[in-house]
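Let's practice the habit of predicting before peeking. Look at the sequence and jot down your guess about where helices and strands might fall. Then scroll down.
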Amino acid sequence: MFFFKRVSDDIRLAQVEFSKQTKGKRLVLGSFLACMAAVLQAAGGYLPGIGYFISPFATLPILISAMFSPRMGVLSYFLTILLLFILVPSELFIFPFTTGLLGVGIGAGFSFLKKKLSIMIMGASLLTVGILSLLYLFHFPVLGPAVSGPFSFLAAAGIFAFSFFYSLVWIEIALFFFKKLKPIIT
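Done guessing? Here is the structure:
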């Protein structure tokens, strides 16, 4: 079945090959991916309209770096946050709690979990927690005024359902790009 398919064996082999690279090469790759994520996320601030369609793709560089090494993924995540602090401080609420958190969660899921369903649940859970934190802890209307206000279990369930589907999409995108990038990076 599709959801119970093992996806991590190929990734674990690439992680072993990647760990044999020099520390400098790994650092440069992580920095490059963090810069790509910062530029993609900043598109929402610099290009109103079309930039909002580009900024969700900031998940991909963080996800790819976390797939090769969870440690590099976390470092790329924090470096992207620092770069966004310099480039577009208004994106500091969005990236750490949504786009970046999803990338780190799914990327780490590829390292620690074996089945597609468990990776999807991990990514969806982290994205849901991030969105709910923005909505109800920081009172930042990330989903607009329709979901703002007091906590609603119905809204939380809807956010989780969307996050689950969104995680599935990003897992498939990540596997596609991982197969293309694996020969180049390792």
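How did you do? The chain has one domain: 8-185.
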